Amino acid sequence: MQIPKSAPDVVLMDIQLPGMSGIACTAALRKKLPEVPVMILTVYEDADAIFDALKAGARGYLLKRGDPARTLEAIVELHRGGAPMTSQIARRVIASFHRAPPLEHPQDRLTAREEEILELFASGHSTREVAGKLNLAYETVRWHLRHIYDKLHVHTLTEAVLRRRA
After folding, report:
1. How far is the C-alpha of 118 from the C-alpha of 125, rounded, in Å?
2. Would you tell me the crossing angle of helices 127-134 and 138-152 to the nearest 10 degrees?
3. What is the pLDDT of residues 43-94, one digit of tens each?
4. Distances (CA, A) of 140 to 111, 116, 130
5. Domain boundaries in the chain?
């Protein structure tokens, strides 16, 4: 990719380009000129294209069929450091976060033993029954249960079972 001697203030990029996708071109451009903001201006509004473009470094995403005055506003907004998107694109981005599973921190993962204990509780066993089935002391089961509550951010056994099944 040839870069002109004087870099532009902003770059408008389409997804469909001859010889290279606009997403790949955006990624390459961002590596060579990270200070130059790139905005996708395209007809493609599928979620994969949107997220691939944003992951590649695009700082905005507009649809070509939008209002030309809004496109000019978006260019100014991009130049000033904004991240312009049409309302349709913003709704898709927000919806993807609502569908995404909550982020799990590694320290919140249950151990195999905790999973086993929680499964037995979910099957209706009492603390004494769980201790007997796993050949553990009653207090050891209660100790594991406290850690399960902490990791799942719950306060009751019912909440823990429901959270694990969700």
Report:
1. 10
2. 110
3. 888 878 888 898 899 999 998 888 889 888 988 898 888 889 888 888 877 7
4. 14, 13, 10
5. 11-99, 106-165
pLDDT over 80 at 110, yes or no: yes
Which pLDDT value is given to residue 166? 62
Answer yes or no: are the C-beta atoms of 150 and 161 closer than 8 Å. Answer: no
Tell me which of 3.40.50.300, 3.30.1330.40, 3.40.50.720, 3.40.50.2300 is the CATH number of domain 11-99.
3.40.50.2300
User: Class of 106-165 per CATH?
Assistant: mainly alpha
Smallest CA-to-CA distance from 33 within 54, 4, 13 is with 4
Same fold for the pair 11-99 and 106-165: no
Predicted TM-score (pTM) of the model is: 0.55
